[in-house]
Each structure stands twice: as C-alpha cells, then as structure tokens.
Design goal:
- The chain is α+β, with helices and mostly antiparallel strands and 139 residues long.
- The chain has four helices and seven strands.
- The protein has a seven-stranded mixed β-sheet, with helices on both faces.
- A hairpin with a 3-residue loop joins strand 3 and strand 4.
Length: 139
C-alpha cells in the first residue's frame, strides 16, 4: 500500500539517508511548517519531497527523491502529483521547480505539464554545477 504524509521528526534518519543537503535547523522547520512529505510503501519510507515558498508566495519544489531501488516505477510522479493537489487545496495557483540540465527529471516535469521558464549558471568554483533550469505550472 502506498501512503504519502507530511514529514515528521521521527523521519530524520530516513530523510538524511536520501537528502544530505538540508541543514538540520531547516529539517525542523520543514516538520513544523509541513513543507516536506514522505512516501511510504507498505509502511516503509522510500521517497521524499520538500518545498519552500519562492517570493514568499509561490510553492517551489526543491527536491524530489526516491530510494534507488524504487526509481523508475512512478513513485516520484506520485509525490509530485500529491504535492500539486495539496498546494491547490491550500489555494495556490502556480508552482515552480527546477533541475540541472544533466538530470532526467526535466523530462518528468514536462510530462506532468510543467513548462521551461529559464535558468542560470553558477560558475563560482566552490559551487559550480551544470545549468539549473526552471519550470512553471498553473494549477
């Protein structure tokens, strides 16, 4: 059975196994503000999604990740669709997300109705990465 729920403090060990980019203080904030979700398959956590508010008013998905052995089975799509429905229920009308140009997620976002809307390159040596491309969707 597939379940998606808000992130809880007890998810910390699982969360950090998949997401080492989130500062601990921000983890606590995600729990408190309900800006993170955990995907469970038969009560076993296998995926996560986190977001924040861009411009303080537009939901921006900052990470979707499904455990390696469960990738390619539509679970990431389920997380995104759940987030979209939750954001719509909360009264939001537009969503943003992003991915690096060398990642496959861009194709998933387009299939889900997101449109390319720009990008930027970080060329500061300490933080350099491939171009980050942004996507937008009306809900």
């Amino acid at each position: 059975m597939l379940t998606i729920r808000y992130l809880e403090s007890s998810d910390k060990a699982f969360w950090y196994r998949l997401d080492q980019h989130l500062p601990e203080k921000e983890f606590d904030n995600k729990v408190e503000t309900k800006r993170g979700y955990v995907l469970l398959l038969n009560d076993k956590p296998i995926g996560l999604l986190r977001y924040n508010l861009f411009w303080d008013n537009t939901p921006f998905c900052t990470m979707v990740f499904v455990d390696q052995e469960y990738q390619g089975k539509g679970y990431g799509r389920k997380l995104i669709e759940y987030w979209e429905q939750d954001m719509k229920a909360q009264g939001y009308k537009m969503l943003l997300t992003s991915t690096q140009v060398d990642e496959e997620a861009q194709h998933v976002y387009r299939k889900l109705g997101y449109k390319d809307c720009g990008g930027f390159v970080i060329d500061i040596p300490e933080f350099a990465q491939p171009m980050e491309m942004f996507f937008i969707k009306s809900i």
